[in-house]
Amino acid sequence: MSFDLIPELATELAPTDLPASDETTEATAAPGAEFAALGLSTELVKAITHAGYTAPTDVQARAVPAAMSGRDLLVSSQTGSGKTAAFVWPALERILAARQDPAKRRDKGRTYGPRVLVLAPTRELAQQVSRACSVYGHGVSGLRVAHVVGGVPYQAQLKALRGPLDLLIATPGRLMDLMNSGAAILANVELLVLDEADRMLDMGFIDDIKLIAESLPAERQTMMFSATFDGSVGHLANQLTREAQRISVDKHTDTHASIEQRLHWADSIHHKHALLEQLLTDKDMDQCVVFTSTQRDADEVAYKLQQIGHAVAALHGGMPQGRRNRVLQDLRSRHLRILVATDVAARGIDVPTISHVINHGLPMKAEDYVHRIGRTGRAGRSGLAITLAERRDVGMIRRIERFTTQPIAVAVVAGLEPKFTAPSMNGPGFGGGKPGFGQRRPGGFGGPRPHGGGGFGGGFQGDRRPGGFRDDARPQGGGFRGEGAPQGNFREGGFRGGDRPQAGGFRDGGAPQGGFRDGGFREGGFRNDSRSHAPRGEGFGGGDRPARAGFGGDRPAGDRPAGKPFGAPRRKPD
After folding, report:
1. Residues in Cβ contact with 490 at an 8 Å cutoff, skipping those fewer than 6 apart
2. In sequence order, what are the residues at sequence separation of 6 or more whose Cβ sits closer than 8 angstroms to the Cβ of residue 196?
3. For the motif Q motif, what are the positions (predicted)?
4. N or C: which end of the chain has fewer CB within 10 A?
5. Contact 317, 338 (CB under 8 A)
6. Using one digit for the tens of pLDDT, what is the confidence trace for 244-294?
7. Can you list the domains of the chain with their CATH numbers?
8. What is the secondary structure of 161-227 as a DSSP string?
9. pTM here?
């Protein structure tokens, strides 16, 4: 058996009210059934067990038999639940069946286009799907898989699209460019898969998806995977599917069962950095992903950790694609122990040896917390997710706990205990209400404020103000930094005023011993992943909007080819 993956694009993998069918899926297949019982061929079962998997997850056990029956599917499942395999396995089974059908024989040297088309929102997720195909399709003779994404030279992708192609994984923007140039042939697609459909709509790809679907054969199978099918995602599903069967996997228990969650309160940004350094000395840690709220924070934290001896690298959407690929390869090959990443850059990372996730900066949406911690506890392993939070983060912590329906256990590091009294997340107000630290202010919001450090907020000395200003070390010369003079660098996504700081971007004046920046704006700022300069049209969507030239986006610079009217604008105006 040979596996013929397009060499230029080859990668490796370590182990609402919706008019859909009311048919239940509870009895399709019992969770925990053997892979062979799902109807998978011997070739696939061998490849799956060789990869180290012993039993299908809930979403796999329920979705795979339904998909192999030819039904359109709408699957609600969170990251880390095994959803990628839930559509890759049926896709490979379709290709295997075509190998046995003389009427579907394909001659070498002719361009047919793919039998299976998978659309994914980001390059990293597309690459993850491609790697999964290489693992599970190891026993499929002559399998040809390609992925086309932004940041990769056109010539390599044009070559990948020639000849008998079985499976194509693409980001919508780059695929549209290839379609407009006549390089992508989609007339023979038998199966369309939309992975993380909700995220693609958040990123403004809805018009691209509709145009791509219109170019496909009407007689095809369509599978959509999304965290939710409310609102616009549900409307799109109604347009693209017919009598779709709905499968919903519990978004909380399925994702968190093998992940222990801990919460460490920090008095200040200095305290948070000290906690991070101490936590990274855990001898039980295999590999770790540290999440930051901005690209710039990712660079700074990675730089400082490198200076104190850690094998670490940053990963974010502002990096060139080639560099991002090298970082991911170093992570998989275990040359890196720590990856410091933003939300979007880390989506699609499937490395079973990631034992820890640390939230150095909190996400802007509770569901993004689920995606973050889903980087650990994969492939049947256990994992540890640690969140570092300050006083201003209480509201987000409560939203996360309500979303997951699980309180996060508070923990402390000996010698680094927080000075303030942390709020009780399990007592009154867990399901709603306003947070309070220690004793509530008399009379609630209308009562007198406790005496603090003066200024706007008073309160806890050394903590951040609720609006993002600090109570300690107010700058004497104006500005918002805590070193006595403005440094000229607001967080990415905000306003900028000067060159990057020296010594790798860390603040010198008044900085803690660890060298981390003092007095930065609140993490998350005005955006979640802080794109470079250009404002995003989706607010706090948590995803890197497909950017144009130079920012690792999904398409080259320039307008679309002439003569290709698209009606309404493809993306929300900047």
Report:
1. 480, 496, 497, 521
2. 120, 121, 125, 225, 226, 227, 347
3. 33-61
4. C
5. no
6. 999 988 655 444 678 899 999 999 988 999 999 999 999 999 999 999 999
7. 7-251 (3.40.50.300), 256-439 (3.40.50.300)
8. TSS---EEEE-HHHHHHHHHTT----TT--EEEETTHHHHHHTT-HHHHHHHHHTS-SS-EEEEEES
9. 0.55
